[in-house]
Description:
Elements (H helix, E strand, L loop, with lengths): L8 H15 L6 H8 L4 H6 L3 H21 L10 H13 L1 H9 L8 H6 L4 H11 L5 H20 L7 H19 L1
Helix pairs in contact: 1-2, 1-4, 1-6, 4-5, 4-6, 5-6, 5-9, 5-10, 8-9, 9-10
Amino acid sequence: MARKATVTESMILDNAFLLMRTEGxxxxxxxxxxxxxxxxxxxxxxxxxxMEQVVGLVYERAILFFEYFxxxxxxxxKLPFIDLGMAYISFASKERHVFRFLFLSEYRGGRSMYExxxxxxxxxxxxxxxxxxxxxxxxxxxxxxxxxxxxxxxxMALMDDFDLGEEETLALLKNVYQSYVKAMA
Length: 185
């Protein structure tokens, strides 16, 4: 009688995501994953064709993780792009390895930055519509200007060069938004 498999896909993916989240995507190897999951590499390669497949599934889980993180911020501010900026900067600071994997690595699963941000929740599209409803003449252009600032601040947070608290960051984003809107008028 064959021995029952005790290592499941869920166990492997949970441990793969945890390994990436705590040590970085570069540490996501079959041996390290097996050690983290408490098994040999054999169950990994029984369940998956190769580690690229595992990395792809971890990337999809990371996208969902980012979207879940962002939901905490959405709807708090009336000004467009502020909640997205707060979420993105906070994510870079609190989830460094996941942020790097999603937004700074060469691996994006064929997606653009815009597609990653818009995700399943269409957050960018909703913010562009919100800006249009607020009377912004070029909401897509405003998004690009805001995004350059937001992404730069997030990268600074990632490198511990952005030491502003939440209230200061919020005030800064609102000032940047107002300045860009004023300049566009």
